[in-house]
Amino acid sequence: MYWGGNPAECHPRHFTKYTLMQKSKFLPRGRKDRTMVLVDIRETKSAKASDIFLQVRPGKDFELITILRAMIKEQHVGDEQIAETGMTREVLDDLVHRMKSCKFGCFFFGMGLSMTRGKHMNSAALLTLAAEMNAFTKFVAMPMRGHGNVTGADVIMRWQTGYPFGITFNRGYPRYNPGEFSTVDVLVRGDCDAAFIIGADPGATMPQPAIEHLKRIPTICLDPHVTHTSNLARVHITTAPQGIAAPGTAYRMDELPLPLKPALKSPYPSDEEVVRRINAAIAEKPFWLAEGSQPQMITNQV
Amino acid sequence: MLRITGGKVYDPANEIDGQIKDICIDDHGQIVDSVDGGRTIDATGMIIFPGGVDVHTHVAGGAMNFARAMTPEDHRRTQAFIRTKNRRSGLGGMAPTTFATGYLYAGMGFTTVNEAAVPVLSARHTHEELADIPIVDKTTLTLMANNEIMMDQMEAGEYERAKNVVAWYIWAAKSYGVKAVNPGGVAAWKWGADAKQLSSPIAGYNTLTPGKIVTMLATICDDLGLPHPMHLHCNNLGAPGNISTTLDTLKHLEGHRAHIAHSQYHAYGGDGWDTMCSATAQLAEYFNTHPNITTDAGAVLFGDTVTITADGPWQHLLYKLTGRKWGNLDVENETGCGIVPYTYRPSNLVNAVQWASGLELMLLIKNPWQVFLSTDHPNGGCFWRYPEIIQLLMCADFRKECIAKLPDKIKGRITLPEIDREYTLYEVATSMSAGPARALGLTQKGNLGVGCDADIVIYEEEDDVARMFSHPRYVIKAGEIVIEDGDIKETPEGREFLVKPNYAPETHEFMRPLFEDCYTMQFDNYPVELERIENPVMQPLKLEK
Ligand SMILES: [Zn+2]
Fold first, then answer.
1. CATH fold group of domain B48-497
2. Per-chain residues with Cβ under 5 A from ion ligand 1
3. Which has the closest alpha carbon to B54: B355, B372, B305?
4. Mind listing the pLDDT tens digit for each residue in B305-315?
């Protein structure tokens, strides 16, 4: 079940490599042995690939998930509540029956769920539905992430700091608060006095006050291309494109690391090499705290 | 070069029990007979142990990293490491960050850890995390007992092929040995089922049973000459009455070497949560008569933690019992994993039985070369709480005080109140270092003899055992002083020990079509490249000449 995502256009390999087409020991006929349901507010190209398309009314995802959570437990749900979501009882009865009788169910949810009305509440509701479905059959849920190696950044921040994003080191150790320490919030508030940007183009996607702040402060940008951000940056270092001319690792959405083997050579250094050289140059400078004023361990945070 | 003089040495590998003895270390980080010049540490009034070796822990990999993501509320209240000139920042707690993991282990005198559960599919990730754990040396074990390609060979009775497949996987993962978790049960979990009976066929198979996997995999580990035998997490973990499953499993291991992981979780009597009791006496009796098997305690300490195990079906049950957060990861056709935060409470009868059972096993198994200090970090408690367990083992009076705080209903369910044994320092050194090193086949560890790695911990002798073991005066790793007077002085990179078991050269091409049939990544991208391992050290196989 895809919910609020459009893999046919956004993740074109997902159907063929991962979810629908693969033939396997227990599903020897591939696509024919699977049922795909798409839940979305509009009939995207992914609908053509689905067996069942459910057009939920915009902003009613949370309600629909809650109704499903009630229906799998055979709790009463009123007709008017169902109608509010754009569904009929008949359709939902059929869906619940299919969900309960499948051998292995999987939700893949996209930004159409996690970034619309209800946001993280929607994601939490769907994760709860998946967990509760395990009372009947095997069920899991997985988010459909954005482009590039966003999962990889997330994974490494977690092992080094404990948190995936929205991290500040301003007390010398990692603290976390999305909405306060996320890049966009820090920029909009004008809280940072320098920016180092790698593998992203915030100049194209962030709100105007954030972009204005990037222009005000020394912004350094590592990118193979000229981008909106490189145009406003004080320094743009051209680097070799990852996966094409620079090796490395990219994380798939299920957090599986894949090695990148470059097909071409580039006259430019890789991002990694540039960062290493900057790091080495900084290490040559005196430590930022005076000798004897080293901070102590914190055993109880405040 | 370094000389340590005047300290009382506890070096069970060389039967040295508290004698005062000089230890000399050369410039290659090895222990030698004598040195000329260099620094001298006066260890008068101090106690010298070989550096601690954790035989079973979970410190890196997809599951641990998932647990970190699931528990921001714990990161916020836990110990924080501030960045300094020689230390990176990080967080301690239930699921510590990588840098903090190295500092916390070394800070407690541990210098080698065995990451006990690595799926091949995410081994590349695990090695990268391990490279970010400073100071300590590492080994990893590959999860095999639910690998469908291997299971298919076993079901078909193709022992040689199964052996080749296992050897191929170990090298593909660049690991050190084999871990078996709930054999068949994790594969069955993909059907929403479990495998609790050793003699019943596994979901998705006709004749293959958990018992057959146990015996075959133990034979394979022996035949391949792996330095560490099969490392087994038995079926039916955590369930009341599971002692029968555990004893049945042990019967399937007759004549083989094996290490039974966290046996505390596998030693319960009773037939339901209301009647659950400790059955450690029966299990200890088995160990006392079967020196071919080693184990680690998997002891439980009261307090908050997060449970992480490849035992997916058990974690689903734990989620239903607690109603807390639940993470589930299915790792294609190799294995799976579940994560649930958990609080062990002394007022909870089940938890009280678990707490007592871990200590009972450590006290009832007579030979400290057979039972090792562990909490199955973070499952039974966090590794940085080991000194609390040492105190419980060394002080019968303190133990009695703790037992007195348990609910009255505990009476008759545990045997701990009747045990008077107290660990000696020699036994502690065996259980936290020499024993696990020998079980892992790491001949250069847990041993202060000439030619061994100079991984050494020096404690200031004092009556408060927990304090003494949590605050070593010096920790030396590969001859380098990393901790001095409680401060982290140096944070060198650790090494990783690997083995390359022999397999028929055609195995690679045998695997290719099977792999392409069921995996979602490219076959050629699957094996971890040796260059990705930071400071690899090849450990020899134990093959008969
Ligand atoms: Zn474990």
1. TIM Barrel (3.20.20)
2. B 116, 376
3. B372
4. 999 988 888 88
